[in-house]
Amino acid sequence: MFLKRHWWALLYSLLLVAFTVYLALDTFVISRVYTTVPQQTDSASISETQPLASEGSEGTDATAETTAEMVLTENTYSDGNISITLTEYREYDTTIYVADVMLSSAEYLQTAFAQNAYGRNVTEKTSEIAQGVGAILAINGDYYGVQESGYVLRGGVLYRSTPSSGQEDLVIYADGSFAIICEDDVSAEKLLSDGAVEVLSFGPALLVDGAVTVSEDTEVGKAKASNSRTAIGILEPLHYVFVVSDGRTEESAGLSLSQLATFLEGLGVSTAYNLDGGGSSTMYFNGEVVNSPTTNGKTIKERSVSDIVYIGY
For residues 297 and 170, what is the distance between their CA atoms, to the nearest angstrom? Predict the structure, then answer.
């Protein structure tokens, strides 16, 4: 009798639950590939000597090249075009990994998509994406794939131009310089026409012109005040830092955004930007994950992400 009287209500409830489950799966689980990106050259196939751009002087042939032998240690890499030094710090009861990067050209600062494809919920581990493109150094990116808006400009190709109100982005230009913009103020098309090569849409900015731009109360959504963090910064032309901090464990408490910004200020960084953190925070260097990524604080395991920022050929 009860079912006969209330069948419509039960049916409506079942349909509502099914629709809610579908929305959740569509938002966070179901993968949709929109564009496949042409496969980039794997640097593993490059010989152990790389071309070194000649510093030259007046009267020197601009096309002349010399070579420098690749030098690799546990904490360093250099080949004449790329120089990386990895240093581990201990601040705020937290382990912080800093990769100091110097380049001969901005072309070696790159980004890559998971599974070599732009789409929604298309993911891989940071180390897997890095290995696929032959990265020397890599950190997780902005995890664009779980958002429906926010600019996505990668490698000089505009994939998404829908602005997100109030969104603060990091713009990387062809010369390797950094700028912080708000999507309310400039279109993605204008950024592209002005020479932008990469736009990362997470945030917030941590430093602008050497000054801290976050307060002690600034946080990302509902993130924990102390968390695993990923950031990228520039000190001077073609001189960068990639930074990842551990967090969520007894061994490493994690950083607030204010602490992260203050730490970067102490390194002499001019412009710095916060990337996706928490369980996503991962640094890969010389074929290995160097930090301890964790989502729950108990299991050390990489989270699959949409994209990476990396150094490589």
Answer: 29
Q: Is 311 or 25 the better-scoring residue by pLDDT? A: 311
Amino acid (one-letter) located at 261: A
Tokens of 283: 């640094």
β 137-140/283-285 pair status: antiparallel
Q: HEC profile for 79-92? A: CCCEEEEEEEEEEC
Q: What span, in angstroms and rounded, lies between the C-alpha atoms of 82 and 13?
A: 59
Joined tokens for residue 249: 């464990």
CB atoms within 10 A of CB 280: 25
What confidence tens digit (pLDDT) does each residue in 294-303 have?
999 889 999 9
Instruction: Give the per-residue SS3 of the chain.
Output: CHHHHHHHHHHHHHHHHHHHHHHHHHHHCCCEEEEECCCCCCHHHCCCEEEEECCCCCCCCCCCEEEEECEECCCEEECCCEEEEEEEEEECCEEEEEEEEEECCHHHEEEEEHHHEEEECCCEEHHHHHHHHCCCEEEECCCHHHCCCCCEEECCEEEECCCCCCCEEEEEECCCCEEEEECCCCCHHHHHHCCEEEEECCCCEEEECCEECCCCCCCCCCCCCCECEEEEEEEECCEEEEEEECCCCCCCCCECHHHHHHHHHHCCCCEEEEECCHHHCCEEECCEECCCCCCCCCCCCCCEECEEEEECC
Higher pLDDT, 307 or 296: 307
pLDDT in tens, 176-215: 999 999 999 999 999 999 999 999 999 999 999 999 999 8
* Confidence category of residue 63, pLDDT binned at 50, 70, 90: very low
pLDDT level of residue 10 (50, 70, 90 thresholds): low
